[in-house]
DNA sequence: AAATTTATGGCACAGCATGACAGATGACAA
DNA sequence: TTGTCATCTGTCATGCTGTGCCATAAATTT
């Protein structure tokens, strides 16, 4: 990895940390991009070369999560019931979070806290999650040999799986102190889901 | 109803129709608020007194839907299994759409077509739907005597119900010609949901 | 060291959204 | 009808987000 890329990565993280701290201190909407840029000594124009928008900073973790979860899904055997594959993939994503460095963990918790306390951001976060959902639905449909434009089942299966983790993340309103606590919550939601469905409900035909 | 209110309603609908047609003709993002305002002879400032934002025009139907569905939920007996109550309420909402005037139907289909062909709008629509979801989750939690801040089940039940109709609406990608066709799709999704869960999965304890 | 690719900053600009104020218009009572 | 009051509307000013463009600076390659 060259100097250039290392430098870019450093700037990206500097922006990220500065922005998150500013958001938490004085609120998301009242913090301007210019302020963020100023606090890391770059121009506002450059900010938008690292993050496509102001909200992209807060939803940044989605990018990584989507990558991890889709890869994990790909690794599951094709003949496994799709909902089970999805739950597996989602658990892989969660465990990846657990392996994160302290800095990464801190960032994630800050984003989570921001989203929790800001309905507008919560909405954006869900919308971003649904993007991932659509992509996974295509993959699940392919595995089942169904046309996603005609059959609703694949999309429905993915939607339920994603809704489960979303609820798991959202639900513990009162103070999310640490990563472990949060994962217990999400895992509780996943287990709740596991015993809620009829066997074979997610299979075509 | 006085002249004043009638006039307001007329303006609101004029804005709505003009905006939807412009969006469909030249695209959502390329249409400016000023253009919309101009085509109904009002100032841009006034536009924002009728709709809180440009996207509010496209997501307008959500306001009515939320009202209908929450009222319908309230009418269900408190001891009914919550998921069943939700499906009932959602079906009431759908049937209300069926009773709509031709103009209302046309507007709704336009909005639907816009959302279908614009990922950004689709995201906003989902975000709006989740707002409704949260409110209903509070009500369902109350009915079950659970604290929504602690227990995930109520939120999960509502999330699944809402995800079902969302998938029902989204799924028929290729040409949504009429209202009836759309409702068949959504109803198909609801029936799919009905036979996917274990009996009693949505009950506390 | 020169040539090439890529990142950055500054500038201009369009568009969305909001606050403030003054004038127009409907509501209502005398 | 007229006058008063509440409400709606347009105009103006303003702040902020996000993008295109171009010149400059930095890193990479040869």
TrEMBL record, chains A, B:
Q: Which UniProt keywords apply?
A: DNA-binding, Transcription, Transcription regulation
Could you confirm whether the keyword DNA-binding appears in this record?
Answer: yes
DNA-binding region boundaries: 32-51
Note the Pfam families from the entry. Answer: TetR_C_14, TetR_N
The cross-references to InterPro entries, in alphabetical order and at most eight, read: DNA-bd_HTH_TetR-type_CS, Homeodomain-like_sf, HTH-type_TetR-like_transc_reg, HTH_TetR, MftR_C
A single Gene Ontology MF term assigned here is:
DNA-binding transcription factor activity
* Keyword set includes Lipid biosynthesis: no
User: Which SUPFAM superfamilies does the UniProt entry name for this protein?
Assistant: Homeodomain-like
Q: Which domain of life is it from?
A: Bacteria
Per the UniProt entry, the signal peptide is none
Q: Which residues form the HTH tetR-type domain?
A: 9-69
Q: This chain belongs to which protein, by name?
A: AcrR family transcriptional regulator
Which organism is this entry from?
Nonomuraea dietziae
């Amino acid at each position: 990895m060259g100097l250039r890329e290392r430098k870019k990565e450093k700037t990206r993280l500097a922006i990220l940390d500065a922005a998150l701290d500013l958001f938490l201190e004085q609120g998301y909407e009242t913090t301007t991009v210019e302020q963020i840029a100023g606090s890391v000594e770059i121009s506002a124009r450059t900010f938008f070369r690292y993050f496509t928008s102001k909200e992209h900073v807060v939803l940044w973790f989605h990018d990584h999560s989507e990558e991890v979860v889709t890869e994990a899904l790909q690794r599951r055997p094709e003949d496994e019931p799709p909902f089970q594959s999805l739950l597996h993939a989602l658990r892989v994503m969660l465990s990846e979070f657990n392996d994160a460095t302290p800095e990464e963990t801190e960032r994630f918790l800050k984003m989570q806290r921001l989203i929790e306390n800001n309905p507008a951001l919560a909405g954006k976060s869900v919308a971003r999650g649904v993007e991932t959902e659509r992509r996974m639905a295509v993959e699940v449909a392919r595995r089942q040999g169904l046309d996603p434009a005609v059959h609703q089942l694949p999309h429905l299966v993915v939607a339920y799986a994603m809704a489960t983790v979303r609820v798991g993340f959202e639900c513990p309103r009162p103070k999310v102190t640490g990563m472990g606590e949060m994962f217990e919550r999400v895992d509780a939601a996943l287990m709740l889901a596991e015993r809620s469905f009829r066997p074979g409900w997610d299979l075509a035909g």
